[in-house]
Specification:
Number of domains: 1
Shape: globular
Strand content: under 5%
Oligomer: single chain
Number of helices: 14
Distance between the termini: 39 Å
Helix content: over 70%
Structural class: mainly alpha
């Protein structure tokens, strides 16, 4: 019991330790850069914000955030429709997908749990089964970033930092891991049914290879638009990079943004590592980019929060037990039973 408490304490403490380490490194780099210019740290950072055209910045970022929300909701809708509720509409997933962004400010896993609770209360879907779909989405998100990062590195092999050259090897190992995972949960290898049959892995048991490919394809427009927007915005902060080079940067930085820690500190650190000659501009760029994105999405969530709350706590909003909706008659369930 004591060991379990210590493990939970470390899990809670780890994101803050990562954030502290990132900001400690940034402080040292920024302080040295400010001293080299003969100015104080605050004034040095302030100059990184002074020359930015904020109207042009907003004109780029607001449409991008809205587009990302629509794509993110589309992915959640398709996965839930495949594995949980066949009758759910795209408009029906928007309130909870948006409202979950508010909880993402605190913890991404908590926001995914809110989606599970929402569909459990509204549609009668067992929480573990929705949780399985959320885990499936996260799994696909990581593979999307790895694949795009590999493509970008191969495209700009000579111009990217040497440390990026390890990404194709990571992608190869991830590909082998994916094959093993898919074969295991499809029942083709392994005999550990106790693990395979757990509710949290239901979506992986039902998923075919094309389900993974479809999620990657659905997320592609958001990644490509992110490359364009971040390239243009970087120029507003004094950076100069081609779209091809940014294609190698953005997926890696986005992967850093998905790591635990407040304020997307890892992503901010990555920008400074990528452009070491401009630590002030890159710190400012990373800070406003990733935190505006997070806060703007939470703002979208506030617009939907009243509707989501009403549906979540309505006593009449449930659609009945899963068997009344044909949930256990999903064709993929039948296929799994036959195998």
């Amino acid at each position: 019991m004591t060991g379990e408490k210590k493990s939970q304490a470390w899990q809670k403490l780890l994101p803050f330790l990562i954030t502290a380490a990132c900001f400690a490194y940034l402080y040292v780099r920024l302080d040295r850069a400010a001293a080299a210019e003969g100015s104080g740290l605050i004034s040095y950072l302030a100059r990184s914000f002074e020359n930015v055209s904020w109207s042009r910045w907003l004109a780029l970022m607001i449409p991008y955030c809205l587009f990302f929300f629509l794509i993110d909701s589309l992915v959640a809708w398709r996965v839930i429709k495949w594995f949980n509720v066949r009758t759910i509409s795209y408009a029906g997933i928007l309130p909870i997908r948006a409202s979950a962004y508010i909880l993402s400010l605190v913890n991404e896993q908590v926001s995914k749990g809110a989606i599970a609770l929402y569909l459990n209360r509204r549609d009668g879907v067992p929480g573990w089964e929705v949780g399985s779909s959320m885990l499936f989405i996260m799994f696909c998100e990581y593979y999307s970033l790895i694949l795009w990062a590999t493509f970008g590195v191969l495209l700009q092999w000579r111009s990217l930092p040497q440390s990026f050259h390890v990404i194709p090897a990571i992608a190869l190992a991830a590909g082998v891991f994916f094959v093993l995972v898919h074969l295991y949960f499809s029942g083709k290898i392994g005999s550990g049914r106790a693990l395979r049959d757990r509710p949290i892995f239901r979506s992986f048991r039902l998923a075919r290879a094309w389900h993974y490919g479809a999620v990657l394809a659905l997320r592609a427009p958001a990644v490509l638009l992110g490359v364009v927007v971040y390239t243009l915005v970087l120029r507003l902060f004094g950076g100069s990079v081609s779209f091809g080079e940014m294609l190698g940067y953005v997926p890696v930085v986005f992967f850093g943004a998905s790591l635990p820690g407040p304020m997307h500190s890892v992503a901010i650190l990555f920008w400074v590592l990528l452009f070491p000659d401009r630590p002030g501009q890159m710190t400012a760029f990373g800070f406003v980019q990733h935190n505006f994105f997070m806060l703007f999405n939470a703002g979208i969530g506030l617009l939907f929060l009243r509707r989501a709350t009403r549906e979540l706590f309505s006593q009449t909003s449930g659609a009945g037990p899963p068997t009344e909706r044909g949930e256990r008659e999903h064709p993929d369930d039948t296929r799994q039973q036959r195998t």
